[in-house]
């Protein structure tokens, strides 16, 4: 099967902003900065220094919504997850309306990729809002025909996916609150949300392919149950250092053909 071409990240993000009819700066990328790394140029017109203090506010593994209201979280009983619109949106599928009964239903995700299938169990009890959002997006085909755009192989060990633009700044048109962070750790097999700061979750997520020490700032919402060999193969292939040593686009293209929801 064909691989998705690499995109000019700055151009793509800028075009998205124009298409959305806004003159606002392109989305901030959702990144996990390399611990103890020097300043990293994140692109998209922004330069940020990696946080070596372990503070949650500066670490981000992927993109975040850009709406001014992204941090003005709804707390009403009818929106316990704090789902809030953000612009611009990529592949907009609507904003989920949280349903506690549906959110409690257990499920697994089979991610069919060009490198093999990775399956993970959704942690619906620990992260009901995050798993509800992921299921919503997957069932609407949001993740289909996208690719994993970032692999890190030094200090932190993750494969980042979930951005339909492939730029690290894509978003589904909404964001929502963090959860399941108390005492959070990131051993191999963890699936967690990437973000650009507190309560900026969207569609981007990452797999931890080797035990990684991170501050508890990224919502863990899944555990890999099959396909760790696929993740290790991708990691062994390396990356192109586009974002700095040990941080770039995977050398082995990781195209997501389908994100399949399997009820348990």
Automatic annotation (TrEMBL):
EC number: 5.2.1.8
PROSITE patterns linked: CSA_PPIASE_2 (PS50072), TAT (PS51318)
Residue stretches of biased makeup (Low complexity): 10-24
Reaction equations catalysed: [protein]-peptidylproline (omega=180) = [protein]-peptidylproline (omega=0)
Spans annotated as Disordered: 1-24
Residue ranges occupied by any PPIase cyclophilin-type domain in the UniProt entry: 112-261
UniProt-listed InterPro entries: Cyclophilin-like_dom_sf, Cyclophilin-type_PPIase_dom, Cyclophilin_A-like, TAT_signal
Name recorded for this polypeptide: Peptidyl-prolyl cis-trans isomerase
GO molecular function: peptidyl-prolyl cis-trans isomerase activity
Protein role: PPIases accelerate the folding of proteins. It catalyzes the cis-trans isomerization of proline imidic peptide bonds in oligopeptides.
SUPFAM superfamilies for this protein: Cyclophilin-like
Family: Belongs to the cyclophilin-type PPIase family.
PANTHER family: PEPTIDYL-PROLYL CIS-TRANS ISOMERASE B-RELATED, PEPTIDYL-PROLYL CIS-TRANS ISOMERASE-RELATED
Keywords associated with the record: Isomerase, Rotamase
Database matches in Gene3D superfamilies: Cyclophilin-like (2.40.100.10)
